[in-house]
Structures are given as C-alpha cells and as structure tokens.
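Entry 0007
Protein: Coatomer subunit delta
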Amino acid sequence: AVCTKAGKAIVSRQFVEMTRTRIEGLLAAFPKLMNTGKQHTFVETESVRYVYQPMEKLYMVLITTKNSNILEDLETLRLFSRVIPEYCRALEENEISEHCFDLIFAFDEIVALGYRENVNLAQIRTFTEMDSHEEKVFRAVRETQEREAKAEMRRKAKELQQARRDAERQASQSVGITGMSHHAQLLLYFNP
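Output (structure tokens):
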C-alpha cells in the first residue's frame, strides 16, 4: 500500500485473500507502531510484519506474514517504491490517486498470487506498456464503432426527416388535388 503518515491508504493492492476492513485496520495501526528516530525498515506485531519505506509525506508499506523472507520482502518493497516515480510526477496523495490504476497494474507485475515475480523495472514498464497498447487498440476500435454508429444514426435521422417531408408534401398535394377537383365539380354544376 501507499499510505499517508496517518495510515490512510491512498492505493492498496492485496495479493492474498483479505477483507478491506482488515487491510484498513492494519494500515491504521501502522503509524502507531513506528518508533520515531530509529532507522528500521520494518516493524512486527504478533501476526504481521510491516516492511516500509518513507517517501516524503507518504509511506510505501508491504504487509507480510512474520515467516516471510525479510530479504525478499525488502527487495520487493524497493521495486514497489521504484515503480511509483515511473507513473507519478510527484510523491503526493493526489498524484498517487490520479495514477492508482497504473500503479496497481505495475504492482500486479511484481507480485502474483502472493509471490514475487522475477521481474525488473524495465520489464514492468514493457509489460504495462503492452497492456497500454492493447487498451489503445481497444479504444480506437470502440471510437471507430461509435463514430460509425453516430454516422448511421445521422443518416437514419435524415432518411426519416426526408420521408416525413415527402409524406407532408404528398398530403398537401392530395389535399390540393381534392380541393381542386371539388372546385372543378362545383364549377361544372353551375356552368351548364
């Protein structure tokens, strides 16, 4: 998770089954466990280990079981922390929130099913760009379909409008013809 100094999650991704309230509770408890002034990169409770890295006004926090490999956890945390500047111009709450989905996609490349993938920053960038390319292709196809649907809609609207005009013209002509024939009949009756 990327969280504030107060423990509020800005972006969070769990890789094992865990409820949202449990995650929020763990993150809320995190700042209270911090020993100010000490240069540790992790803190433990009875049930979990928090591996963390300060990032200006925020923390990058990895919550693991106590029996996980601390060295792997630190390496994973380092990679998570290096991903953030790839997508965010500043390490600020609003910037992290704005790019949360990009970050989550990148996080998914680092950890799968609770285990760290053997990837580096360049590979993560490539994988997320590939996803991004697929998304761009999908959007382009969808936009083309939308344009075609709008053009078809305009064509149908013009067609309906023309049909309405034709119907009005025919109605006015038939009324005119009926009126004229009725007038001609009257003239025939009065002109013997």
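Curator remark: The longest strand covers residues 48-55. The two ends are 103 Å apart (CA to CA).
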